Amino acid sequence: MNADYPDSDVVRHRDKFYMISSKKHMSPGMVILESYDMVNWKIINHVYDKITWGDEYNWDKMKGYKRGVWAGDLAFHDGTWYCYVIDPSHGLFVTTTKDIYGKWSVPKKMLSQKKVGDDPSVFWDDENKEAWLIANIGRSRTKEDKDKYLFKNAIFKMSWDGMSLEDEGTDFYKGTGAEASKIYKINKQWFIFLSEWSTKPNGEKEDRKQIALRSKTNSIYGPYDKKILLEKGNGFERSCSQGSLNQAPDGSWWYYHQLIQNTEDPFQGRPQCLQPVEWIDGWPIIGKDIDNDGIGEPLRRSKMPNIKATKKLEIQTSDDFSESKLGHQWEWNHNPRNSHWSLTERKGWLRLKASSLAPLTKYGFHKGSPLWRASNTLSQRIMGTKSGTAIAKFDVTGMKKGQKAGFVRFGGISHVIGVKMDEEGSQNIFFMDDKGTEIVGPKVEKDIVYFKTTNIGKVARFQYSYDNKHFDDFGNEFELGFGRWSGDRLGVFCWNDKEESGYVDIDWFLYEYE
Question: What is the pLDDT of residues 318-363, one digit of tens each?
């Protein structure tokens, strides 16, 4: 998946595979995708309509950057779907549903943020009628090297209904950045997958490797043998770890993992890779052991799983806004202000009503572009690795004095192009960079304006047009970037510096990529 779908968890249920992926402060949160073959995916839902456990995620606060919905665990047990997630600012939560395509329950808090760190994983042992949860519970500095972090991981006994924990947890493993646990029981042996950093002699992080612990007894508490299953190499400069193990209907094994470190194509975020798994001496070796050291390296290409898909699915991107609900590809920057957008006031168009900016805070990223404080910003992940072009059609006749509306690219860095109306009622094309520096251009000549953005690799630019045929460049060429745990995103925005008045209508959004 050449897109920013980080922290994925993939589970097989009957003839389909389901994936969840985190997106921190974005709303709706924890996207859900489905696939028949683990290669072609479609977005089907989100777990959270909005983030309800902290007011920093509200549209009038917007202080939740880098927090919110972190890596989660998706599980199906006894007719119910469960999603577990840890917000490091608020703790461990569980939410459930009978219908993965439907509405999920209100999140229930299971642990406070003082008792848990990140990355929960659960397992129901049907053989022994016991349920377990594992999570990273915190970090501590070693006395020998203060720059080296040890993450502690603990096993909690969980109630059979999956809604509460029955003990205080038992520490079972600590390692440098050890987190991203997954629990499996295969042929009566326990396997606990973790991601862990190797370090250079000076303590600097080197490679985030995928490790596994394999039980020596039938107890989940161990003792365990340890082995590295996957490390970077074979042309990959980015670490390959944190994911989930699945068995296909034909008996073959596969592993989904993400790429991190962002040394290549940082604007892309953390894409997902599917690797074949070979069992060697009782260990699931991921990818292929290219250098014969007993550790797998990732493959850029391999045969697809031998699964006859009944449907070929595709991740949604373009939108003509003809439905009564927003497409699942769209997410708001923090919780939405539902009174300030509509798909029904003008049928076939998305209407964004100008909202005031959230107040400035102590967070440094609020000191630059006001885009970071504009709640009525709707966006989606970019796709592809080489290039992309997106165009949107705007009707600007509903704009009022002080209003700004248009097209945005943002992730670690923000850049916008749009229309602004000044105090005299004049409408002009404008460009704004991440520092909030504006370039004001020519007066707007017509009611309909088309905005376009193109990127070749990490270099992008904006253009505008009145006929969707001849486009003029405007603003500076700029680089896309990763930041706040997000790759680049494409979207639309609408705010008013003066008062909450005015709106903009968007007829369609078209996105093509390679």
Answer: 999 999 999 999 999 999 999 999 999 999 999 999 999 999 876 5
> Which single residue is written with the structure tokens 């991601």?
195
CATH annotation of 9-286:
2.115.10.20
CA distance 290 to 35: 29
Residue 498 and residue 478 in contact, taking contact as beta carbons nearer than 8 Å:
no
What strands lie across the sheet with 224-230, from one edge to the other?
179-186, 189-199, 205-215, 224-230
Cα(63)–Cα(72) distance, integer angstroms: 21
Q: How confident is the model over 61-80, as pLDDT tens digits?
A: 999 999 999 999 999 999 99
Residues shown for the chain: 514
Chain segment 259-303, per-residue pLDDT in tens = 986 566 668 889 999 999 999 999 999 999 999 999 999 999 999
Assigned fold of 331-513: Jelly Rolls (2.60.120)
pLDDT more than 90, % of the chain: 86
Question: Where do the structural domains in the chain lie, given as residue ranges?
Answer: 9-286, 331-513
Neighbouring-strand partners of residue 215: 224
Looking up tokens 């000044």 gives 422
Q: Provide CB contacts within 8 A for 263, sequence distance 6+.
A: 237, 238
Hunting for tokens 């080197």 — which residue is that?
206
The answer to whether 175 and 150 are in contact (CB under 8 A) is yes
Predicted TM-score (pTM) of this structure: 0.96
Closest CA relative to residue 370, chosen from 338, 406, 398, 396: 406
Give Cα 314 to chain centroid, integer Å: 18
